[in-house]
Amino acid sequence: MKQLKQKREEQKKFFEYKGAELKNFYKKYAMRALIFSVAFHFAVVGAWFMSSVMNDANADKKDEIKERIIILNEVPMINEQKEVQEPVAIEKPKVTVKKDLESLTPVPTRKVDSEKLTTKSQDQLDQVKGLVSSNGDDNGSTNITDATIKIDNTKIDANIKKDPPKVEPEKNFQPFEVEKAPVPVNLSSVKSSLRYPQSAIDQGIEGKMVAKILIGKNGEVIKVGSISGPDIFKDEIREKVDDLVFTPAMMNGQTVKCWVTVPFNFKLKSGFNH
Questions:
Q1: Percentage above 90 pLDDT, the chain
Q2: Which of 219, 211, 215, 210 is nearest to 172 (CA)?
Q3: Ramachandran region, residue 177 (left: φ > 0; alpha: ψ -120 to 50; beta: rest)
């Protein structure tokens, strides 16, 4: 029994000693392993982060558009030389000179007559240099030296068909397009002649009417384009608006057609205002 107890105590001391040694060993290498694992994780994360940054930088460089500056030398202008058409030379008609051929042909005569007749010598024949007429005589004009051809341009122009000039349709201008817009001359008198419709009075209707009118070159009303406002007043406006007279619109020193708008106000308080 004593030996068993002694053996147990020895084992207990041994384990206590070895346990303390194992604890120290564990603490020492556990700390080293922790430091190494943390450093390894930081290295892996850093490498991944750096690779992603490099990839983004390369992608940005690829997306950038490289600007190229190209310098173009001035191209010398080539002066086109206009071809000058030389006048066409008109060949002069050749005028043949008819000589007195009858004088060259011998005529048989009697001996008696031959003594009376005088023959023309060769020198006399060479002196025949004048022009003869179409009848064979020598009374033709001797002053004709050159033949000229005259062309009647008026006849040629008459035969050429020319396109009729295009007539542009006359434009109806807007007030902001002309230099001087039309101005009504008798607007107050026309407004005073307007009558307030009885049906509008009975119904208590008021409103503002605007008439769009086309003014001619002489200041007269050519056309009533549109009338905006309550329908109950349109007949009265359409009936009296033709009596308006305007000063004509001016454009480049000339009178032109122009659209204008004329307002009319209908109110019940004081009858109605124009």
A1: 28
A2: 215
A3: alpha
Cα 184 to Cα 61, 138, 164, 263: the distances in Å are 71, 89, 40, 12
Exposure string over 207-230, b if 16+ CB within 10 A, otherwise e:
bebebebbbbeebebeeeeebebe
End-to-end CA distance of the chain: 141
Is there a contact between 5 and 13 (Cβ–Cβ < 8 Å)? no
Name residue 247's beta-bridge partners: 183
Whether 244 and 223 have beta carbons less than 8 Å apart is answered as no
With cut-offs at 50, 70 and 90, classify the pLDDT of residue 58: confident
Query: Nearest 5°: phi and psi at 68?
Result: -115, 130
What are the residue boundaries of the structural domains of the chain, listed by start?
1-52, 172-266
Phi, then psi, of 120 in degrees rounded to 5: -85, 130
Q: What is the pLDDT of residue 133?
A: 47
| Stretch 19-32: mean pLDDT | 78
Superfamily of domain 172-266: TonB (3.30.2420.10)
User: Residue 182's closest CA among 241, 249, 256?
Assistant: 249
Phi-psi region of 219 (alpha: psi -120 to 50; beta: other; left: phi over 0): left
> Mean pLDDT over residues 1-18, rounded?
75
| Under 8 Å between Cβ of 258 and 215 | yes
CB 227 within 8 A of CB 209: yes
Paired residues of 99 in beta bridges: none
The top-scoring range by mean pLDDT among 38-47, 158-167, 265-274 is: 38-47
